[in-house]
Each structure stands twice: as C-alpha cells, then as structure tokens.
Structure to design on (674 residues):
C-alpha cells in the first residue's frame, strides 16, 4: 500500500489559518470526516485530544503527527494541513508546527496501514521532503511530492537490503573457507532499538533519523523498530557480538538479556529524533555503560533522559504489583471456596478449615498469600536493579512479612518470642522492595570498578551475597518500627473501651483499610477477635464492624472498575471482577494491588467507606460470632439486613470517592472504544 492510497486529494488542505492547537485539530478532524474515515466526530476528536494529553505528538522541525486508534474510526485514514503561521504544539525544540498530519486508525482493522504511516514518519525526517510539502501550491503537488519521495525511499531500502544480503553471503562464504565474494563483509558498528508506547510515528522517525545521521557521520548502523506492526529489522546475535555498542531509544520496556556485557546507552525515543549525533558519539567514544541484564531484564530508566521521580517510582511499583496480582487472585479465590465449603465450622475460630476439604482449599490459598509480599518486593527490586535485584527483594519482602527483628535473633529458639512477631504488611514490603533495588543498584555501580577478570563472578557471587546481607540487616533493624506501630494501635483501641460503640465501630472499620493486611489492619482484627473471645455481645458487635470494614475495599474497587470503566485500564477492570468474591469473603488483600499502585487515592477512599460501614453496623447492633467468613456467614450475623446495608453503603461511598479522585484515562490507555 502506498501513502497516497491513504492520503487523498480531499484530505489535504493548504494554507490553513489556525491560531491554536485545538483549531488545527478541528480542521484535521473535519477532513477525516469528509473523507469518510470517521463515524463519530465527537468521539474521534476526544480520542485525539486524549492522546495529545499524554505527551505532545510534535516531533520538532515544524512537524506534528497527531493520531488516535478508536472505534469511532470506520477505516484507516490520513489527512494533512499546512499552517504557514505555525501552531504551538509543545514541540521538543520549541518551534511551532506548520506541517501537520492526522492519523485515524480503527481499533479492529489489521495493522497494514501502520506500515504506510511508518514510512511517512521516516520520510518526514528528511528536510528536503518536508520543504517540498511546504512549498506545494495545490493538493496535487503535495501528493506528487509524497509519491516521488516514497519511490526514492523504496529504492534506497531495496538497495540496502541487497547490500546486506551480499554482505551476509560474503561472511558465510568466508566462514566456510571459500573465497569471499567482492562485497562489503563489515557488520554494523552501532546497533539501536527504537520504540514508543503507540508505535505509530515516533518509533520510525527515531529510526530514520539515527540512520540518516549515522550516514552523515560515516558510521554504519542498524536500527530495530518495535512498533505496532511488530519487530522489524531485528538485530542478530552476530551483529550484537561485533558491534561497538547499542542505543536504546524507547519509551517502553525493552528486553535486554541479549545485550548482556555489551556497552549500552538507554534514553527516550525523542532523543533518537532530536539528538541522534550525540547518541552515536556516546557509543563510538566508548562512553556507554556496560549492560548487566542476565536472564532477560528490561531496559532500566533512560540513561540520558530526565524522568520524574513520580514516574520512576510508579514504574517500579507497577512491576511489583503486576507480578503479585496472580497470587492475590488465585489465593483469594481458593480461600473463599474454603469458607463456602465449611458450613460445619461456621461461627468457630477454625471456620474455613474444620473439614478436610475446606482445609485443603484454605491451606493452598494461604500459601499463595504467603508469597504475595515477597513477590511484590522482589519484582520492585528487579525493576530497579535488573535480575540481580530479585533475590534481595524476595528476602527483604519475606523478612518484612514475618516481622523478624534483630531482637528476635537472641530468642530464636523461644516459641513464645516467635509467636509475638508482627508482620510489617505490604507497606514494609514496599519499603523492602525499593531498599533492596537501590542497594543492589549501588553495588552494581561499585563493582563496575573491579577488574574485568571478575566480570563472571559478579552476578553469581558478589551481587547476591552483598545485597542479601545488607537488605537482611536493614529489614531486621527497621521491623521493630512496624511492631511498635502495631502495639500502639492495639493499646489505643483497647483504651477506648466500649462506651461509644459507633465511634469504636468507625475506628476499627476504618483501620481495616489503612494498610490492608499490615500492622493497622492486623491490630484492628486482633482487637476484634480478642473482644470476641470474651463471649459478650459487645465483642460480637466489634467483630462485625471489623469484618464489614475489611469487606468494603475490594467491593468498592470492584464497583469502580465496573461502573467507572474509563478510570481503569483493561487489566485493572478484568482483575476487579475477582474483588467481588474477595470482598464478600472478607479478604481485604484483594485491594492491595490497587492500593499499592495508587495509594494516594485508593487508601483515603477505602478508609472513609470502611469507617462508615463499621459505624453503621455498630449503630444498628449488628453482631458476628464468627471471626471470619464475610457474607458466607450471614446466617449467623445478628441483624443481617442492616449488616448488608452497612456493607453496601460503605462500598458505594468508597467507590464514588475513589472514582471522583481518579482522573479519566485516555481511550487508548483505558482500552475502551471512544
């Protein structure tokens, strides 16, 4: 398919007068509608604006390529305008954009059109081509300039492929002992990978510019593109072994295992477009650091790009959360099944495991939960320090979960001392993950100064030995802080007494959402079970408030992902359904992945909803003789109607607050058709 098969005469408008970016987008959207590519103008326009809100689609040198992939597009389309006065498009070079293309991509069609758009992106990196488009007096001249440049580009690509094939044949012949053919047998000096989240324009523009600048510098280069049409021009093991180094110009994770031990410089895709000469010089001058990515780690934070602290923390956090989620979901459902099967144990402390079948599900589910926090910490650490960070992260997460301290070592054989340990919960595991990651990263940097002869033992001996030792020391030293918090909370709750049951219900209910399985949560639960053991109705009221408070967070999140779909990614929504089961089963931990990913919004919302539910339950004298079970023990709940009402009110309030606090995602990010 040629570019002009997508871009028609009716889709080109020259000499447009647009004072703002929004006015320019309106002109472009109207052209798409007129060309029959769009079936819902408003939704398509909003999709374009949402994409622009993520980061500017201007690439510099007066060029912008806005785009949107949405169900509001009926067929692939391309339109273009020229704006002689220019429009501020927040370009990286600060120049106004006067040559603007708008891409319309349907969300159901195959990606054949993306190859054409990739070619256009590459062509636009040539100043003479862009100048010819700007100089066009009519749409026909505009399209003719594109056809001419495309034909030249195709011929150049064919020549490059023929030259590469001849060079490969020469190398194979030489390796076989035959006389080498008269061809260039040299391998590329520099390798590169370009990629961006959408993979439509920036990926290919960066690749083209790197190739163009390398040719001007007299440097041979090969660029692999990882775009929407898949991986193109893939780098081979032979090329990797022979090159001087690798440039990663990408705004998404790149597999680095194949580059282990090679000089590698990581930056963002915009640098490939705007700073190609600088990147190539870094490799050619031997200034790139050595890649340590045994086992296939992903690209670390860009070496030469500025990335906000929040963005960096979020990226590492999400790596831990995404790996932790299967343990939460699988373990939680198995535990819910154990409660459903164990009607014989209802109302007892052994509810969920009083029969062999129920005990089986409960045991397996609990074991999955035991891995949850170490997994979270391990993969946060791995995101920071690559594969060497995995072991110390796991160890730190486990120590956090178990609550081990330096004082525990002196009484390690004392069963009572072991029973007194209090887990730090997911907050401690988060700390352990980041601490282990940055400790390991520091060790890696320090070991770079060691002789090359020790390169082989660093990942298998030095990194794990030193990092595990240090994270163990850190967590053993800091875990008493979490234990002290837990003891303080327990004493504070006990000191409140039972004079104001509504207030007490609100406090214990809210505390169930503070850290969802950590010291706050456990303090409230231990207080509730201790009061329940007294055998009084007061104890049963407190236990009911504790349990309903712990049921609110998963259900609130499930409701939000169901009702307010545009606040959540597709993966969040799919996982959110499971939280209905977890919430009804009093498994608060189902909300942990969401709380860990966005604590500033999730935790306050859930705390308010849980406190409200706990207060309502206590106000209406709802009681629970069971220490666990959630909705599955409704048959033994006192005043069950108001208990369910308290749960519903608390969950709905938390859902509404959370959904109000979270900003709607762009259609592409949310995975929803606009």
């Amino acid at each position: 398919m040629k570019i002009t098969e997508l871009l028609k005469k009716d889709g080109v408008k020259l000499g447009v007068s647009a004072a703002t970016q929004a006015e320019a987008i309106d002109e472009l959207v109207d052209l798409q509608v007129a060309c029959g590519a769009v079936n819902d103008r408003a939704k398509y326009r909003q999709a374009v604006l949402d994409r622009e809100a993520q980061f500017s689609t201007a690439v510099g040198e007066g060029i912008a390529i806005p785009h949107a992939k949405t169900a509001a597009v009926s067929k692939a389309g391309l339109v273009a305008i020229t704006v002689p006065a220019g429009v501020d498009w927040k370009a990286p070079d600060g120049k106004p954009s006067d040559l603007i293309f708008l891409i319309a991509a349907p969300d159901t069609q195959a990606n054949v059109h993306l190859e054409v758009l990739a070619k256009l992106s590459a062509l636009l990196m040539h100043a003479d081509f862009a100048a010819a488009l700007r100089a066009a007096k009519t749409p026909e001249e505009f399209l003719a300039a594109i056809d001419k440049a495309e034909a030249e580009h195709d011929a150049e690509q064919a020549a490059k492929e023929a030259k590469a094939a001849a060079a490969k044949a020469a190398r194979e012949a030489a390796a076989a002992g035959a006389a080498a053919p008269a061809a260039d047998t040299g391998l590329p000096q520099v390798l590169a990978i370009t990629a961006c989240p959408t993979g439509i324009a920036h990926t290919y523009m960066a690749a083209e510019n790197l190739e163009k600048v390398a040719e001007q510098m007299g440097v041979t280069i090969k660029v692999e593109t990882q775009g929407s049409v898949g991986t193109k021009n893939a780098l081979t093991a032979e090329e990797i072994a022979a090159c001087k180094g690798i440039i990663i110009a990408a705004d998404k994770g790149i597999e680095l295992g194949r580059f282990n031990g090679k000089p590698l410089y990581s930056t963002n895709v915009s640098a490939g477009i705007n700073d190609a000469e600088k990147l190539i010089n870094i490799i050619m001058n031997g200034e790139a650091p050595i890649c340590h990515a045994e086992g296939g780690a992903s690209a670390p934070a860009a070496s030469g790009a500025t990335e906000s602290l929040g963005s960096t923390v979020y990226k590492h956090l999400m790596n831990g959360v995404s790996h932790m989620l299967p343990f939460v979901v699988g373990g939680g459902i198995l535990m819910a099944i154990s409660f459903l099967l164990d009607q014989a144990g209802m109302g007892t402390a052994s509810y969920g495991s009083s029969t062999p079948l129920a005990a089986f599900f409960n045991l397996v589910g609990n074991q999955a939960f035991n891995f949850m926090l170490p997994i979270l910490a391990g993969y946060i650490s791995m995101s920071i320090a690559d594969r060497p960070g995995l072991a110390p992260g796991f160890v730190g997460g486990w120590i956090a979960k178990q609550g081990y301290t330096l004082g525990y070592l002196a009484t390690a054989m004392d069963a009572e001392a072991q029973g007194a340990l209090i887990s730090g919960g997911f907050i401690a595991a988060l700390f352990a993950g980041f601490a282990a990651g940055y400790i390991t990263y520091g060790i890696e940097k320090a070991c770079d100064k060691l002789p090359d002869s020790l390169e082989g033992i660093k990942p298998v001996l030095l990194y794990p030995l030193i990092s595990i030792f240090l994270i163990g020391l850190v967590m053993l030293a800091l875990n008493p802080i979490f234990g002290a918090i837990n003891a303080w909370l327990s004493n504070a709750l006990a000191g409140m007494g039972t004079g104001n049951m509504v207030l007490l219900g609100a406090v214990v209910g809210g505390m169930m959402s503070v850290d969802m399985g950590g010291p706050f949560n456990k303090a409230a639960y231990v207080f509730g079970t201790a009061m329940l053991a007294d055998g009084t109705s007061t104890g049963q009221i407190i236990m009911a408030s504790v349990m309903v408070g712990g049921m609110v967070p998963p259900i609130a999140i499930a409701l939000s992902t169901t009702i307010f779909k545009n606040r959540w990614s597709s993966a969040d929504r799919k996982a959110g359904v499971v939280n209905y089961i977890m919430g009804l089963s009093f498994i608060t931990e189902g909300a942990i992945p969401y709380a860990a990913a966005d604590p500033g919004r999730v935790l306050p919302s859930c705390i308010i909803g849980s406190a409200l539910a706990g207060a309502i339950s206590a106000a209406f004298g709802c009681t629970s003789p069971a220490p666990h079970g959630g909705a599955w023990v409704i048959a033994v709940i006192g005043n069950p109607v108001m208990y369910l009402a308290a749960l519903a009110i608390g969950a709905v309030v938390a859902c509404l607050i959370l959904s109000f606090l979270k900003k709607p995602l762009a259609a592409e990010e949310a995975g929803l058709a606009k």
Observations:
- The two ends are 27 Å apart (CA to CA).
